[in-house]
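Weekly structure sync - notes
Attendees: PM, LS, DV (DV joined late)
Agenda: review two folding runs queued last week.

Item 1: First target. Sequence and structure tokens pasted below for the record.
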Amino acid sequence: MFTKEAHYTYFLTLMKRYLSPYFNFYAYCLLPNHFHIFLQVKKEAFQDGQINEACVKQFTYLFVTYTLSLNKESNINGGLFATPFRRVSVKDDHQFTQLMYYIHCNPVHHNIAKSCTDYNHSSYSSFLSSQTTILLRDEVLDWFGGVTRFEEYHRLFDGYYTSKDFLIE
């Protein structure tokens, strides 16, 4: 999925273009062969208590646009994404906290990085930065009790990631 540095950047650009009108972003992690995004449907994306169909179609636009671009660049044809993609509903505060950690530390789980702080293609570093982001950075950092507590939480559970009780996949 992501074989060059530019692919990661392009995918993030497309996520912002296609998904940000309909979703709030909490976290993401782009790995060479898959990705995780923690999103919340925006209130305005609901109609009559149902998620607006346009909201769901945005993922199709994201996937098709990215796939066509990679196919053109590589001079190949074919799909890139497994369908249907999986979704997990966040049911409580504890799961929210665990999901943030799970997404950021997924590269550790897949032996791509030794620590979530070492991986450049996740939202972890965006929470420590002051640069503009599509993430709900202030809300997430407030949730953890600030930047220091956010970092401490991620360090505290280092190694806990492989516990079967913890995994969300």
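Item 2: Second target, run right after the first with the same settings.
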Amino acid sequence: MAVYQGARCRMCRRAGMKLFIKGARCYTDKCAIERRSYAPGEHGKTRRIKETNYGVQLREKQKVRRMYGVLERQFRNYFEKAAESKGVTGEVLLQMLERRLDNVVYRLGFAVNRNQARQLVRHGHFVVNGQKVDIPSFLVRPGDEVLVRERSRKLSVISNSLEARKGQTAPAWLELSPERLGGRVLSVPTRDSIPTPVNEQLIVELYSK
């Protein structure tokens, strides 16, 4: 699987907003957006480009893709499944991305960012309904219980993440059980409970051409 090897803060500067790719750093004054809010590159400060409708739609799609760490082909597959499902296509697309196991691990606070959550899932540190799942794209469903595996409960990366994100609450569609080092999926997330600052309708318009 292809992995982006470039500077991750550059993605946020290109998007013009925080994508929270680097976890705790994004909440400090070390964040690239806080220090250099202009676009990356030699002419980032002076560049004045009038974007077309296509450019605006493409930028919005790239924001979501980079935020969730999904490659283009996989993102396109999510869109096609969302388009075939009942409901508003853009909202269903975000619901599917939110229900990915790596995102659920991140939302519950067991990782400081989605990249770290993806790595923890791949290494088999979580179980869903008692069964080990090491596929980051696994889609959880209402009623599913996600727990840290017994042998992984003393991992410093998990305890450090929980400490770093202390005070942050899980979204309404998830229930966190700190004492059990796990959580439960209460429902399919609604758009209001997905704190993703994007206009998903622009993505629908982009792929509908």
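Discussion on item 2: The first strand starts at residue 126 and ends at 128.
Action: LS to circulate a short write-up before next sync.
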